[in-house]
């Protein structure tokens, strides 16, 4: 019972991550009018640019696939951890310098979302590895 409970909680966590990014990504495509100034395209408090919307939508769709195929959760979470850790680093530098002409246009809300996403993915990836080790070391009865 403990093993299935862990797997279901990992799947729910990945599902929440995927749905949040999918929702923000898809909504972002509707908030990108051509005549807006850079920095005015937002979904709630998050930036909406073409690059970010594609990244978030892809993260959401791939996350939904990983939820449907639990064997992919580990691969997905490691990928999300690395990608969003890098995006967080870039975003902090971008938001701190507020340089004009930044195509990604990250703000501090994006940086917090990306950092939390990265950390959550890392935690799920570690739990997935521990779960895999426990099931491979289990003695068959």
From TrEMBL:
<dbReference type="Pfam" id="PF14325">
    <property type="entry name" value="DUF4383"/>
</dbReference>
<feature type="transmembrane region" description="Helical">
    <location>
        <begin position="44"/>
        <end position="68"/>
    </location>
</feature>
<keyword id="KW-0472">Membrane</keyword>
<keyword id="KW-1133">Transmembrane helix</keyword>
<feature type="transmembrane region" description="Helical">
    <location>
        <begin position="12"/>
        <end position="32"/>
    </location>
</feature>
<protein>
    <recommendedName>
        <fullName>DUF4383 domain-containing protein</fullName>
    </recommendedName>
</protein>
<feature type="transmembrane region" description="Helical">
    <location>
        <begin position="108"/>
        <end position="129"/>
    </location>
</feature>
<keyword id="KW-0812">Transmembrane</keyword>
<feature type="transmembrane region" description="Helical">
    <location>
        <begin position="75"/>
        <end position="96"/>
    </location>
</feature>
């Amino acid at each position: 019972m403990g093993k299935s409970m862990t797997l279901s909680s990992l799947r729910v966590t990945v599902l929440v991550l995927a749905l949040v990014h999918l929702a923000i990504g898809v909504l972002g495509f509707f908030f990108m009018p051509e005549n807006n100034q850079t920095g005015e395209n937002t979904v709630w408090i998050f930036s909406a640019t073409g690059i970010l919307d594609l990244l978030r939508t892809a993260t959401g769709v791939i996350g939904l696939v990983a939820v449907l195929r639990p064997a992919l959760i580990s691969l997905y979470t490691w990928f999300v951890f690395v990608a969003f850790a890098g995006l967080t680093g870039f975003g902090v530098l971008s938001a701190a310098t507020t340089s004009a002409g930044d195509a990604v246009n990250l703000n501090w809300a994006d940086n917090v979302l990306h950092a939390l996403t990265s950390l959550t993915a890392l935690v799920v990836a570690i739990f997935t590895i521990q779960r895999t080790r426990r099931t491979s070391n289990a003695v068959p009865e």
